[in-house]
Design brief:
alpha+beta, L-fuculose-1-phosphate Aldolase, seven-stranded mixed β-sheet, 9 strands, about 35% helix, binds zinc ion
């Protein structure tokens, strides 16, 4: 595993998810296992999920916080997600199985991510979704906070944003005093409703959640959502931007979408994966 990102770039994020769960650190959770595990997931899928964690870290989408999951290949009502751990440090042994309510099947007491409800409720609401990336990617946060500036596709690499990027306002569900985290199934449902049929939902004051019809697509879209946000902000400095229109967005989603393996193979190699 190659941790080749500039660590100094991560200093902006101060969220508390991912910390080891204790009473004094309430943003992680130790919870009881429930139910019977499904047959073991394909080892390649587990390896790819580990690689996805490392790729997202290398691209600054996640730092010590944030997480990526994939739907279980043998049980569509289950998903795979790391135990409570910084994404760059995830290994195959850290991958756990969860049901859609966010209950681990065999965590054996290991702390789990508090915001696992993001994943379970999106998988429940969207049968087409096979992978979910949740991050606090700094570049997208301004677009969640400034309602007059929606995130829009500024180049061909992110045509998938053309279907619209909703912003989740947690105050509508949790009231005015929450810690912004998706810490319950109800909040997960509200987030999934806000996502609707889109690929990306911004979360005001928090970050973003990106979905895909497979793991590589979700990772690809998370990386290019972040890049799009950076470019859109730069264009705003220059003047009024011309964004992709609906037809261009649809066309580029198809053409660029056919090249995802090319990016994944390179990124996996950079991440030191043995399974590019
Ligand atoms: Zn979060």
């Amino acid at each position: 595993m190659a941790l080749n990102r500039n660590w100094s770039k991560t200093s902006m994020c101060t969220g508390s998810e991912g910390q080891v769960g204790t009473v004094s650190e309430p943003a992680a959770e130790q919870t009881m296992d429930r139910g019977k595990p499904a047959p073991a997931a394909d080892a390649t899928l587990v390896d790819d999920l580990v690689t996805a964690n490392h790729i997202l870290f290398n691209h600054g989408v996640v730092d010590a916080f944030g997480h990526v999951s994939v739907r279980h290949d043998k049980a569509p009502d289950r998903f795979l997600l790391a135990r409570n751990l910084a994404p760059a440090l995830v290994t195959p042994d850290d991958i756990l199985e969860f049901d859609l309510d966010g209950n681990p099947l065999a965590a054996r007491g290991r702390p789990v991510y508090l915001e696992r409800f993001i994943h379970g409720e999106i998988y429940r609401a969207r049968p087409d979704v096979v992978a979910v990336v949740h991050s606090h990617a700094p570049a997208v946060v301004p677009f969640g906070a400034v309602s007059s500036q929606p995130l829009m596709p500024i180049w061909h690499m992110s045509g998938f944003l053309g279907e619209g990027v909703p912003v989740f306002e947690i105050r509508d569900s949790a009231g005015p005093g929450s810690d912004l985290l998706i810490r319950s199934g109800d909040l997960g449902v509200a987030l999934a409703e806000s996502l609707g049929t889109s690929s990306v939902v911004l979360m005001r004051g928090h970050g973003a959640t990106v979905v895909g019809s497979n793991l590589k697509q979700a990772v690809f879209r998370a990386v290019y959502t972040q890049m799009n946000a950076e470019l859109q902000l730069q264009a705003k400095i220059l003047g009024a931007a011309t964004f992709l229109n609906a037809q261009e967005a649809a066309a580029t989603t198809v053409s660029v979408g056919s090249q995802i393996d090319r990016a994944w193979d390179m990124w996996a190699r950079q991440a030191g994966s043995n399974n590019p």
